[in-house]
Amino acid sequence: MKRFLALSTAMGLVAGPALADVNLLSWAAPGNSHLEAYAKPFTAETGINVVMSDADNPATPIKAQVEAGNVSVDVASVEYADAVRLCDEGALEMIDPAILLSAEDGTAAADDFIDGAVTECFVATDVYSMVLAFNKTAFPEAKPATPPISSIWKRFRASGPCARAPSSILSWR
Predict the structure, then answer these.
(1) Going by fewer Cβ within 10 Å, which terminus of the chain is more open, N or C?
(2) What are phi and psi of 51, to 5 degrees?
(3) CA nearest 3: which of 126, 97, 88?
(4) Considering the entire predicted model, what is its pTM?
């Protein structure tokens, strides 16, 4: 069963003389940042073309491709929880942290990332946060005073950019 490498820093691991293109699966919105931050510099340095594609949740087509035995993804950006699950399910290639490039100051990659970012089968590269904000004029009498949890969330929720997934609104630490 063909598996794939997860997350963007793995691009350095897939370079090789027999590889014509690298297929990178990303999220729709952050995809452009991955193109600018990872794909273009990788192509400039190696001459290997990066073919970008995106999905609402890249873990879903990845799991389907692995189960079908027809994987077209070489590198992907998925949420941390999905990467852990895919790793546990054996859908990801193993990565020896020793092969990752050291930082410019010589610090080993495994010591240069935040805790938990370098694992046996993925390297987490995207760190993001979410800010809770509201328009005071939209809630003249009652204003949210705490994070959007249960009844508070139902009362003040708007159809904005917040994804409707637990990993988007809950802290896992």
Answers:
(1) C
(2) -100, 115
(3) 88
(4) 0.67
DSSP 109-158: HHHHSPTTSB-SSBB------------GGG-SS----S---HHHHHHH--
Provide the 8-state DSSP code for 107.
-
65-77 burial, b at 16+ Cβ within 10 Å, e below that, comes to bbeeeebebbbbb
What is the spatial distance between Cα 171 and Cα 121, in angstroms, rounded to a whole number? 23
Query: Where is pLDDT greater, at 155 or 28?
Result: 28
**For residues 68 and 40, is the Cβ–Cβ distance under 8 A?**
no
What's the rounded Cα separation, in Å, for the pair 140 and 83? 42
Q: Radius of gyration of the chain from Cα atoms?
A: 19
Q: What is the per-residue pLDDT across 66-125, written as a single tens digit (0 to 9) for each? A: 999 999 999 999 989 999 999 999 999 999 988 999 999 999 988 999 899 999 999 998
